[in-house]
Amino acid sequence: MNFAVEIQSLVKTYNNFKLGPLDLKVEKGMVIGLLGSNGSGKSTLLQTIMKLRNPDNGSIQVLGMDINQHEVQVKERIGFAGGGLYEAFKQLTVDGLAELVGHWYRNWDQQYYTLLTERYHINRKEKFAHCSMGTKKKVEFVLAMAHHPELLILDEPTASVDLISQQRMREDLSQFMEDGDHTIVMATHLQEEVKQLCDYICLLDNGEIKDMFEKDEIQNRWARLWLSDLPDHFQDDIRVWQIEESPTQIVTNQLVELEKELQQQQIEINQVKRLELHEILEYILQPSSNS
Ligand SMILES: Nc1ncnc2c1ncn2[C@@H]1O[C@H](COP(=O)(O)OP(=O)(O)OP(=O)(O)O)[C@@H](O)[C@H]1O
Q1: Whether ipTM exceeds 0.90
Q2: How far is the CA of 44 from the centre of ligand 1 (A)?
Q3: Are 92 and 100 a contacting pair, CB within 8 Å?
Q4: Separation of CA 40 and ligand 1 centre (Å)
Q5: Burial class (CB in 10 A: 0-12, 13-18, 19+), 14
Q6: Which of 11, 12, 14 has most ligand 1 atoms within 8 Å of CB, for mutation?
Q7: Residues 186-237: pLDDT tens digits?
């Protein structure tokens, strides 16, 4: 299989935090959302993939090449936004930054850069240091897009960005994905972003991958059911994640199978409600009361 990112046994430690050991494979043509609470290690992971942080252990292949051995060739093909990458050059104007960044990439597209700055209402004459937080995020995004990368690595690309620009970014990212060979790995806290863009979700918890799953599949599996009654033996059923009384409700992560069984046992299902993504994530991060 063709992977855009392949990580094996990655470990990165700080004084009070350890990322990994972690294995991750990202198929080409997919959008992977990295989700997890503040401090779970999303930025550390993305920055380590980009070699902005040195891992203690492990190997990272990006677009089929070892990032350590082929850093320049690999980075030519990646668009990265996040991690305060341009703070060191903050005395430059946006146009000045673009000129600098443009020299790093053979595929730099000045016309596309200009079009994007207009689309996002960015004042190209403004010093980067003077740009608002949201504008800085938009500049990072535009610079990442303007050299037509194959892989986008984005760290909360729309955080602090106004709603209209957020929507435009999502549209631009969807368009970016229309070429089947493109891939996005993005850290996000926004449900809207996950809903509109992501194929897979990788859930990080305290530096470890807690789960990785297909977004549509998981949303079909998790539900809350209101029942007329629940026989005792369901208390120990691993498909039943949580039980509540008055009225009798259960949360399941195996809706189809459980519905079938309840019907066979002639237990009346009064209502079925699919869970929102944030509810599902909360359940996954908590141990099941039936496990
Ligand atoms: N340079 C550093 N030195 C020491 N500790 C660090 C450093 N950078 C990050 N950390 C710690 O590593 C942990 C993970 O941080 P990281 O920024 O990767 O989390 P995150 O999942 O991206 O969080 P958020 O959602 O808030 O952006 C945190 O405990 C953080 O304090």
Answers
A1: yes
A2: 6
A3: yes
A4: 7
A5: exposed
A6: 14
A7: 999 988 899 899 999 999 999 999 989 998 888 889 999 999 888 888 888 8
